[in-house]
Amino acid sequence: xxxxxxxxxxxxxxxxxxxxxxxxxxxxxxxxxxxxxxxxxxxxxxxxxxxxxxxxxxxxxxxxxxxxxxxxxx
Length: 74
Description:
- 5% of the residues lie in helices and 41% in strands.
- The protein has one helix at residues 68-71, and strands at residues 22-28, 34-44, 47-52, 62-67.
- A four-stranded antiparallel sheet has the order 1-2-3-4.
- The protein is flat and about 35 Å long.
């Protein structure tokens, strides 16, 4: 199924993100593999918005805006 699909990473410089693109960051589990993802939306001009500060499945938190380089993992 879809949940079994691996994350595909796009190396920096290969493609420029467009406003509205989703950035997905895999969340590590205690065991092998991944158990979920954190998502952000690209706004343009190198900025991403995402929800941070929530715990568990609670939707509480704040919307944060960061530069793309702050969230990219290389």
